[in-house]
């Protein structure tokens, strides 16, 4: 049976939906949701298999690669110290709010060759990283420049975070996990959103599973992505 049903009550940052269920027919048309348990295999909650390997804009999910590279290279020491260009925000809040200037500056400091190496190691990017991919500078690098990803790759990265698999198991990878924590008090979720070039993302993990949500559309549809992602744990979205 489709639709949303449940008993609503207020807790902490947001409204928790007790017994909350969202049927597949209540998801927006064109949405894809992938889900993988800690010990299980990937399943398609909604969407078509044929869409999983289509090249897409990584949008601001690419900021995770910039953050990881900056942590690993010592440009960023922790998740709380204010970043240059972030108006007093540290790495965690900068990722949550997905602000561009600090990540553009970090990308410039890292340079295209180094950042391209981390992009390739991350597994996020489809195909080989071309020389000169960062010709548009840091402002373009914050959403991956001309690089592309796929729904399957985005999800594989989230599964890697959840399981602590290479290359995410090192010291920089552990600090990155701290930076990905989403605000809220009821449930611990680590995730990154993205919206650029008509691609909307939310990908990450929480108790017992990793989830990736994708939808094509304008930025104004971002709330639909958040609702679908948080809904996989039966909670309403919280705002950073």
UniProtKB/TrEMBL annotation:
InterPro entries: Beta-lactam/transpept-like, PCN-bd_Tpept. It holds the Pfam family Transpeptidase. GO terms for molecular function: penicillin binding. Residues 38-124 form the Penicillin-binding protein transpeptidase domain. SUPFAM superfamilies: beta-lactamase/transpeptidase-like. This is Penicillin-binding protein transpeptidase domain-containing protein. It comes from Verrucomicrobia subdivision 6 bacterium BACL9 MAG-120507-bin52.
